[in-house]
Design brief:
With about 210 residues, this protein is mostly helical. It has a domain of about 50 residues. Helix content is about 65%, strand content about 0%. It contains twelve helices and no strands.
Length: about 210
């Protein structure tokens, strides 16, 4: 995991910094829901266009079993960007809330367009697209609380090669996580100095274009 103290400093210096979702995500994974919620609310108040921040906030709501609030956030995200994780979570929440079959099918069809062979999407299609099926309200806690297709960056994976790979794939927040893990090593100082400002600029541009990384 990245060095959250640095994120705390960056966030304290600039509440609109694009790193605030990473800090909130750290608190969320550490089960510090109140801190995660506070960071998200402050960050979004100062940077309302940050859809990644909205996504982390939706996960906080899910963790706190506030499914109606999570539904609103997830719909906002998927209606303004392409975020597969948010789509999968949204379908789970729609089922949990007993939304209409037509509403659930709408988002399953979007998933089917992007990742038709994903295991969970296949289950969705079998349940809701192949004939008439009764909606099952009970969804496992695991599927509600954990987003699919997540990338976990370990210390061993935090290398220049991994950074370049993530950059090429436009996974900018994960690339930033790699840089934060690498930064304490003085050998990486020039690499960090060269790449970090440009990466933060890409993240800001992405937020303006409503793209989730």
């Amino acid at each position: 995991m990245m060095h959250y103290k640095e994120l705390e400093t960056m966030f304290a210096d600039d509440f609109s910094s694009p790193v605030f979702p990473l800090l909130a995500d750290y608190y969320l994974k550490d089960n510090q829901l109140n801190r995660a919620l506070k960071v998200c609310k402050i960050g979004l108040a100062n940077n309302p266009g940050n859809l990644y921040g909205e996504f982390i906030l939706s996960q906080i709501f899910l963790q706190d079993k506030k499914f109606l609030e999570a539904e609103k956030k997830l719909k906002k995200i998927v209606n303004n960007s392409i975020n597969i994780q948010a789509l999968i979570l949204l379908v789970d929440v729609l089922v949990k809330l007993n939304r209409s079959q037509a509403t659930i099918q709408k988002y399953i069809l979007i998933l089917d367009k992007h990742i038709p062979n994903h295991k969970k999407v296949k289950l969705y299609k079998k349940e809701y697209l192949n004939g008439e099926h009764k909606i099952v309200a009970k969804v496992s806690k695991k599927s509600i609380n954990k987003p699919a297709l997540n990338i976990v960056i370990s210390n061993k994976l935090a290398t220049k090669t991994m950074f370049d790979l993530l950059l090429k794939q436009k996974k900018y927040y994960h690339a930033l996580e790699v840089l934060n893990i690498m930064e304490p090593n003085k050998k990486n100082s020039q690499f960090i100095k060269k790449n970090k400002p440009e990466l933060l600029n890409k993240i800001k541009k992405g937020m303006n274009n409503h793209v989730i990384y």
